[in-house]
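Hi, here's the filled form for the chain we discussed.

Project: internal
Contact: R.S.
Residues: 117
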Amino acid sequence: MQQHLCDINPAALSKLPQHTDDKSGIGVHYVDAYLKPMNTKLADGTPVKCKRRGLKIALSVGTRKGEGLMRRLAVSPDPVAMLDAALQEAATAAGVRLSVEGGAIVVDVVDVLEGTE
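And the returned structure, exactly as it came back:
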């Protein structure tokens, strides 16, 4: 079942390395600004937390947890592409699906036991 998680922070794009003095190589200011609105609760009350720890992106949806890694060499030097790949990796490890639809992030919690949505 798909549920609206949060709207994408439009100010995050202004935090990309070309607009700031970010020398991290992965765009930490952009990543932190993008992830901040994801720390919320779903409509059914399930808590969602997403944070960056160094190169790791940690995602938890209720009791499901997953981690993704910001891979500069394997994915792209572009922070937007790196973050998307890391979020997808973390979501897969947590057993959920994340997608961007109409300027919002949507989470789809998959029932692991049944293999259905």
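Let me know if anything looks off before we file it.
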